[in-house]
Amino acid sequence: xxxxRWSQMGSLxxxxxxxxxxxxxFFPSSFRDRLQAYAQKVANHFNPYIQITxxxxxxxxxKKSEAYNAIQIYLSANSSQRAKRLKAEVVKDSQNxxxxxxxxxxxxxxxxxxxxxxxxAKKVSSNPQKYNPxxxxxxxxxxxFYKLTFHRSYRDIITMSYIKHxxxxxxxxxxxxxxxxxYTNNPSSGGYGYKQxxxxxIVFEHPASFExxxxxxxxxxxxxxxxxxxxxxxxxxxxxxxxxKRGYLLYGPPGTGKSTMIAAIAKFMNxxxxxxxxxxxxxxxxxxxxxxxxxxxxxxxxxxxDCSLDLTGQRKKKKEEVDNEEPKDPMRKNEEESSKSSxxxxxxxxxxxxxxxxxxxxxxxxxFTTNYVEKLDPALIRRGRMDKHIEMSYCCFDAxxxxxxxxxxxxxxxxxxxxxxxxxxxxxxxxxxAENLMPKSEDEDVETCLENLINAxxxxxxxxxxxxxxxxxxxxxxxxxxxxxxxxxxINRENGRRRRTERLGRGESQRRIYYE
Length: 516
Ligand SMILES: Nc1ncnc2c1ncn2[C@@H]1O[C@H](COP(=O)(O)OP(=O)(O)OP(=O)(O)O)[C@@H](O)[C@H]1O
Ligand SMILES: [Mg+2]
What we know:
Belongs to the AAA ATPase family. BCS1 subfamily. It is a single chain. The longest helix has about 70 residues, at about 445-515. The protein has helices at about 1-25, 30-45, 65-80, 155-175, 215-230, 235-240, 260-270, 285-290, 305-310, 320-325, 330-340, 345-355, 380, 395-410, 415-425, 430-435, 445-515; strands spanning about 50-55, 55-60, 65, 85-90, 100, 105-110, 115-125, 140-150, 180-185, 200-205, 245-250, 270-275, 300, 365-370, 390. A seven-stranded mixed beta sheet has the order 10-9-12-13-14-11-15. It has a four-stranded antiparallel beta sheet with strand order 1-8-7-6, with helices on one face. By secondary structure, it is of the alpha/beta class. The model is unreliable at about 135-140 and about 310-335 (pLDDT under 50). The chain has 17 helices and 15 strands. The structure holds adenosine-5'-triphosphate and magnesium ion. Magnesium ion binds near residues 258, 303 and 369. Magnesium ion binds next to helix 7.
């Protein structure tokens, strides 16, 4: 094989060079240098293969090379399994922490657009005598690197496309395998400490996903398509001249799955979640700093936006109202005090969402949730800021079927028909339906759980009917009171008019007497 022959030639050259080193002391250094350069030139002229090395550490061996990392992941996913000797390494923050890659001095082949390339993992010893007190990795004198070999006629395709493809795919695999994180902003500490991180995080292990999310099937598919389009939208967004970000407004009554949907979106998109607590943000400048620290491929969430700050402009309390209020419990008082100490304004928040800074990085999602969409300032939720408004509503039949599958592992049952009818006549949140479906003891079977739900739905229906009756009665009474009030007003006005006329009449007769 041609390549084999060339490697033999390489060994031959090495022998020549070895002999050269033996004789080097007999020649002056200027002559030696010239000879070495010439030998290299000859070898390059005859060897049609090009080699590129990717060292494990860049710079002063302080930072692990991103390229090396990406290549390792790419090779272990694509072709390392074919290597005979594998090396196992534990990678931090990965769903699958054990990464198998080829062992030192192993070689594997890869193919790209019909071009064959060779990858080998190499290890060389650096000078052990040279001690660097600042280098963290100097306990070991080994330097690792990957070597890529290819025929020189494919130079362009390899350097322009293949390497880019390997690095991109490696990073993509790393992103897919990594563990999601849930971030929250640290409370403002007054003056900023040097290098104080603005976000703290934990590993995000929410069990919810779109499969387990109970909602109307068609609307769910709609959201999934929207998210998938956004994920692949890099070129589209740059073509239309719009920052690559999308805002979702989730609104609806409590317990309808807004927070659950955020977890499902994070899992589907494989993005970290940045849960922004607005009341802990000191002012607009800090809000901007928080935004700068959120990377691309992230979801920024503001839950219950209507309660976060007084952004609605409708909830300002008049002084009298505040004076008349009952004493508050200390927890709420604290919350309100911290909200008062925050000077974030509506305009600061609007800038946060679609100001010039928000365009940095791209591939960002912003989600607001609220129970009262009508309370929000229209500017905050206009399209462009909150591009898609998603209503999370009371449990429908589709949603019930998902919950029944999740909680009881049943896809159909005779009682489903009855439940479907009752769901149409009631307003029960998926959280309540789920609670009623959940078996409360080992003895409860599917039928018992479904009957529990039917009873709860019936109760809910009765309560609703009673409430409706009460409301209707109240309306009738209000109407009656209004009528009486208008009538009385009319009578009073009539009486007043009569009294005035009488007074005037008396005045007229008195005047006449006076003139007479
Ligand atoms: N649509 C749903 N699909 C699956 N489970 C749901 C759904 N809605 C609610 N649940 C269940 O009910 C619980 C509460 O739901 P969730 O916290 O998502 O409601 P929410 O709309 O965010 O409520 P709130 O407005 O009070 O914040 C969840 O833990 C979940 O188990
Ligand atoms: Mg919620």
